[in-house]
Structures are given as C-alpha cells and as structure tokens.
Structure to design on (427 residues):
C-alpha cells in the first residue's frame, strides 16, 4: 500500500504492508528516532504525536492513519536546534542509555502543550505510558519540571 | 505481503454492508485486533471516517458516539459529572497513550475479561446503539450475553442516564501495568443517613460479570450506622477461573475485602 502522511510538518508518501504497524513504517522510511521497543504498547519508546495526541506507534496500524499528522521527537527539536524539553532533560541528567528518551520527550511535549504548569501527579500520569530502566524516573520528573518552569518564564 | 484489504467507508450503512463480507472486521482504532493474527482475515474496515465521535445530551440522558476514545469520554463526561463511575473506571484504565487510542465502541465489542469499563457501563444501565443486522438500543448486559446481537452489527454509540451517585471503582492488580484480575464497581445513593439505592458489579468472573443482588438488597434502605460489613463480606460468593496468577478462592476473598472497604469509604464520605 502507499499512503500520504504529514510527518513533522512535511507531506510524505510512504509504502507499507497492509498489516504493518506505524513504528515499522516510520523506521523503514528513515524516521529511526522512533524507537522500536516492546511492540506491545508497554514501553513507550515508539511514542509519537498523532493528530496532537500521544500514542504508541507500535499499537497503530499504518493503513488506518493515512492523511494524519505525525510528530516524532525530531519534529520537536534536534541536535542543532534542541527544544527546551530536550535541553532540560540533559541538564537534569534525565538521559542515561537514552533509548526511552524520545518517547519521554514526546510525552512531555504533549503534556506541556496542554498544561504548562503541571503538578507532580499530572506529570506522573502523563508519562504513565513510558518505561525507563535506567534512571528511576526522579531525574526525568526533574527534567519535566525544569522544562515547565523555562516555558513559563519564556511566556512572561 | 498479505492479501489483507482495507475499506474506508464514509457512511454507517456502507460500513455495515462491508461487515457482511467473509472474514472482514471493523477496526475502531484500538488494540484488540492487534492481538489477532491478521493474516487470517480478508479485510479490515476503518471506522475513523464515520462521524461517530459525537456526544449529545438530551434531558438527563447522555449519548457518546462509539469512536470516542477513552480520553475523549473522560474529558467530555468530567465536565458534566466528574464523579461519574465511567470517568473513574476510564481514568484507571490502561495508560495515557492507550487512552488516546482505544475507543469505547471497540472496547465494548471486544470486551475482554479484564475490561475496566464493562462494570461501570452495566452499573449505569447503558444502552448500546446498534446499526446493521440489529438496529436499535439494547441493554449492555443483553449485548454481552447474546452473541446474535453482535452478528453483522456495528456499535454506533452508547447512552445512559446521568444521576447523582456516590461511586467507587477498584481494579485488582499487582502492578500498574497489569490487566486486572477483577474490577469492582459500587454505586450508592445515600440520603438522610440511609442507603437509598445501590448497584454492585464485579467483572472478570467466570460469568464475565456478576451483579451482587443479595448485597444490593441488604444495603438498600439500611441506615449507614447499621451496616454490618462482616456480614457483607460473608455474602460475597463470586466464581473465578483458575489461572497462573490467581487462585479463585483467594480472589473471592479479595473481592469481599475490597468491596467492604469500598462501601465503607463511600459511607464515611456521607457521615
């Protein structure tokens, strides 16, 4: 099958199998920043925004989301122009092996877009679909809090 | 390469016609179908182009289109009735990215034993709106028990009455990521220190779900200070299948304890 998608703001035509999951389609087409972790919707490494909502791309059949807007972590920021969230993660030491980081950044982006001043409970709820096996989450939550503060300061 | 064919209907009638084809199933965006071997299917019907993400309220009845996700329903229903048992059940279900994807219609059609929402929907006496071979609104309990209702029929919506209940929801899990062994739903109407009405549903049992009529009868019209919780615990007798993570007898005891705690919690709020 071939379908149109809006990926990181650009129109893309991708080839995919009829039963293919979105994480596979994205990775086969160069979007390797979307990590393939568990393929069961548990770990969150494959998280993307689909029409502005955080979803596990391993739990999405590609054919069912043709024409939709997809945002990967590279659409949020990259090495050359990192987003505030990415900078805050680095500054807080929230990145160890880094495999889960793209998913956490996407989940944080979704949270802070709708709620710039989240409580710790709201932060924990927003990242309940992401697993990290290195950090113990404390520094990730610190990173999210710092990003929230920076975004609020920038708005003032 | 496989021969799976996708259909993208723009109208409900078109979708229900497609459901008559052999080994062609509707896909409502959720994860239920992903657990199947899709190579055994001839086709999938994408329901996302149908206008089934609506919500509408008429007097005290609210209706949600079947393509509303869990997150959609939490947002819309919280605005009207924050304490609604369906809000509580959905909030505790799955995780944020899955709640953004799983739809209410798909979830009812799939209705696995570990479902977090069936208890709430039964307690609310929800009606399932069907199109296709069976047309109309049917009680959810009937829909779940009667496989004929499911045949070539598409869930287009759900509707239930809004009413003020004290609500409690408990999912029995070992870790947050677990599928629950059972789910307890309690709804009580309390006024003047007396239980006016009660609804208690346990899901995940061998019957899929059980309504604890005997306990409901005991509670209704009882003064809250006269409730004997040890008596309630003894009245619990629900059957579970044996599996590798839980023992049926132990699960029944857990239901008794958690049910008693839930009722006490709701009663304390009204003292």
């Amino acid at each position: 099958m071939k379908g149109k998608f809006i990926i990181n703001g650009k129109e893309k035509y991708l080839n995919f199998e009829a039963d293919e999951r979105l994480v596979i389609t994205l990775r086969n087409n160069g979007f390797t920043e979307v990590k393939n972790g568990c393929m069961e919707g548990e770990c969150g490494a494959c998280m993307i925004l689909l029409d502005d909502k955080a979803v596990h791309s391993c739990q999405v059949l590609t054919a069912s989301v043709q024409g939709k807007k997809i945002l990967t972590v590279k659409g949020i920021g990259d090495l050359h122009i990192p987003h505030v969230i990415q900078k805050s993660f680095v500054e807080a030491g929230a990145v160890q092996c880094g495999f889960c980081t793209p998913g956490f950044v996407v989940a944080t982006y979704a949270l802070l877009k709708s709620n710039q001043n989240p409580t710790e409970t709201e932060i924990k709820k927003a990242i309940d679909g992401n697993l990290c096996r290195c950090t113990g989450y404390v520094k990730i939550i610190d990173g999210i809090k710092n990003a929230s503060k920076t975004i609020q300061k920038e708005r003032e | 390469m496989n021969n799976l064919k996708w259909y993208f209907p723009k109208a409900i009638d078109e979708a229900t016609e497609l459901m008559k084809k052999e080994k062609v199933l509707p896909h409502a965006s959720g994860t239920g179908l992903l657990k199947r071997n899709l190579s055994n299917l001839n086709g999938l019907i994408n329901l996302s182009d149908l206008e089934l993400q609506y919500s509408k309220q008429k007097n005290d009845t609210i209706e949600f289109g079947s393509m509303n996700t869990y997150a959609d329903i939490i947002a819309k229903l919280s605005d009207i009735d924050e304490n609604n048992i369906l809000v509580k059940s959905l909030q505790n279900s799955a995780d944020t990215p899955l709640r953004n994807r799983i739809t209410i219609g798909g979830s009812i059609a799939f209705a696995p034993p570990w479902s977090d929402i069936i208890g709430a929907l039964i307690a609310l006496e929800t009606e399932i709106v069907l199109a296709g071979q069976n047309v109309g609104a049917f009680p959810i309990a009937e829909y779940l028990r009667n496989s004929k209702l499911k045949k070539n029929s598409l869930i287009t919506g759900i509707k239930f009455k809004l009413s003020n209940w004290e609500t409690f929801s408990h999912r029995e899990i070992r870790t947050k990521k677990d599928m629950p062994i059972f789910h307890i739903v309690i709804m009580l109407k309390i006024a003047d220190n007396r239980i006016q009405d009660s609804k208690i549903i346990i899901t995940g049992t061998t019957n899929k779900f059980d309504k604890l009529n005997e306990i409901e009868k005991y509670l209704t019209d009882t003064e809250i200070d006269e409730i004997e919780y040890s008596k309630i615990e003894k009245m619990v007798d629900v059957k579970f299948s044996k599996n590798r993570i839980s023992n049926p007898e132990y699960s029944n005891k857990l239901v008794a304890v958690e049910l008693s705690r839930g009722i006490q919690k709701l009663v304390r709020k009204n003292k």
